[in-house]
Write a structure and sequence with these properties.
seven-stranded mixed β-sheet
């Protein structure tokens, strides 16, 4: 049952006078349930509870937190069909997609449970004392990562489960030992509540402190800014637009105590289509990319919004084939009316830019909340001269950029903004001939893909889902994969502390059995005296 309440620790409350309602983009109708917005008092209560919970939660063992994460996964799966049905209704995404995303959400939680049990994520480093060293003795110095404090999470619009209430940001922050406050996404209010209650149940069953997790409803600008500016918040995870991400980043830097903001923002994910590959497989490549561009109505953060190639016969064949493939794809429901409206506005602005040619633009179906595919073309010199052509068009659209020669291709790559992904479609000979271009693309992206599409991000130990600004606010961080946990931790160095007061990860006998660096060497050994 959906109640429309905020979740503050172990308590469900609904005192706000203002209410919100979710929207079904397929039926083009507002859903019946109302959700009370959080009051200023409830915001303070949630943060105060999180701060109190942190005093206890940060000292829980890795095994305790691992069991908690696994319990959340179990509770989410136990909701069953009502969760799937609600997520479908609020997102317009097909049932198969949501079913897969639910399992991905559970598996992400289990991934971080495994990370906790393996333990090396804390980056324990030990330089044992050397009292006999001359001319000065060396003190005993030990370092590891420790949690930051209450973390604020802004869920994404395009993944109502995997990048939402119990998504990667929440899972990694809880794994690191931080309480979490989620600002529920306005498009997924019912889905959020079902998952928030599942987390609440898991926290109680695992004996976690009251306040380890809260979820608040409210409009983005108002509630978001209240939370961002609250001194009790110690880090922020965000997935969304460049505009919203930068508003959060700028607000944080106006605080008396600035805090880390890990914002994943806009990216056009350039694809470098090299001549040998197109000569050998122009038609197949067009089919492959039409599907990637329009996957999920183009609402993936890794949507290939920029296709870069050299002038030639194979490029013309590719352009004609891609245009035909895009025209054959039917409009699909977008996540909400706002996203749909901005998609058509942004693609029409793109079409009006100097030198941009419309190859195909499906009919505007704003009122039906459907996104129709679109394909545009521009010469490289016009693209280089107009920085606005690098703005993301969030939806099933892409821009083909044609370079007259190798020098212009390299110049274009040098002018690219930072990206989440960069893709190279190439033969082995292409990779040798265009080695400098490929290397330049590598400098612009957080993940580079060879002969595949960028859509789809596999959670795991090696995944990096981040990139240079403006793709993210922190080039070093990832929001997907095991390494996401380190975003919500900081180094703490202990000098000359007695064994009984050290964290287990730094004790001589290594009771956790984890990999540590002792005197510069990775080992699981105990510290020899």
């Amino acid at each position: 049952m959906i109640t429309g309440k905020n979740i503050i620790g172990f308590t469900s409350v609904a005192t706000g006078m203002d209410t919100l309602r979710a929207f079904d983009p397929v039926s083009n109708a507002v859903l019946p349930e109302t959700f009370s917005t959080a009051t200023a008092t409830e915001v303070n209560q949630a943060v105060e509870k999180a701060a109190a919970a942190f005093k206890t939660y940060r000292h829980t063992s890795p095994e305790q937190r691992a069991l908690f994460l696994e319990a959340i996964a179990t509770e989410i799966l136990a909701i069953g069909d009502p969760l799937l049905e609600r997520a479908v209704a609020e997102s317009g995404l097909p049932l198969a997609r949501i079913t897969g995303e639910r399992m991905r959400t559970a598996n992400q939680l289990r991934l971080f449970a495994a990370v906790l049990r393996e333990g090396s994520w804390v980056e324990a480093v030990i330089d044992p004392a050397q009292p006999e060293r001359t001319p000065l003795p060396r003190p005993d110095i030990r370092k590891m990562l420790v949690p930051l404090g209450p973390v604020l999470v802004f869920p994404a619009s395009n993944f109502p489960l995997a990048f939402s209430t119990a998504g990667g940001d929440t899972a990694s922050a809880l794994a690191a030992g931080n309480p979490v406050i989620v600002k529920a996404h306005e498009s997924h209010l019912g889905t959020n509540e079902l998952v928030a209650i599942a987390i609440q149940k898991a926290a109680q069953s695992c004996g976690m402190p009251d306040g380890v997790f809260s979820s608040l409803n409210g409009t983005g600008a108002l509630l978001g800014q209240q939370l961002v500016k609250h001194p009790g918040i110690k880090a922020i995870g965000f997935t969304g637009s460049f505009k919203a991400g930068m508003a959060i980043f700028d607000a944080v830097n106006q605080r008396a105590e600035p805090i880390p903001v890990y914002a994943e923002m806009g990216s056009i994910n350039p694809v470098l289509l090299l001549p040998g590959k197109l000569a050998a497989a122009a038609q197949q490549t067009a089919q492959q990319y039409a599907q990637s561009i329009t996957l999920g109505a183009g609402q993936f953060c890794t949507n290939p919004g920029l296709l870069i190639t050299l002038a030639g016969e194979a490029t013309e064949q590719f352009a004609a084939s891609l245009q035909k493939e895009m025209a054959a794809i039917q409009p699909a429901a977008m996540l909400n009316p706002g996203i749909c409206y901005h998609y058509y506005e942004n693609r029409e602005q793109l079409a009006r830019r100097k030198g941009v040619q419309t190859l195909f633009a499906g009919p505007r179906e704003k009122d039906a909340v459907k996104g129709a595919p679109a394909l545009y073309r521009v010469a490289a010199h016009d693209f280089i001269a107009n920085d606005e052509l690098q703005q993301e068009v969030f939806g099933p659209s892409s821009l083909l950029v044609v370079c007259k020669d190798d020098a212009e291709l390299l110049n274009l790559l040098l002018h690219l903004h930072g990206q989440l992904t960069g893709t190279v479609m190439a033969t082995e000979a292409d990779l040798q001939t265009y080695a400098e271009a490929v290397e330049t693309l590598c400098q612009k992206a957080g993940r580079v893909i060879l002969n595949n599409v960028p859509t789809g991000v596999e959670p795991g130990y090696a995944m990096h889902h981040g990139g240079p600004f403006p793709a993210t606010t922190d080039i070093r961080s990832t929001s997907v994969g095991a390494s996401a946990i380190v975003r919500f931790a900081r180094p703490l160095c202990f000098q000359d502390w007695p064994q009984q007061l050290l964290p287990d990860a730094l004790k001589d006998e290594n009771p956790l059995g984890i990999w540590r660096k002792i005197n510069g060497q990775l080992t699981k050994d105990t510290v020899s005296r």
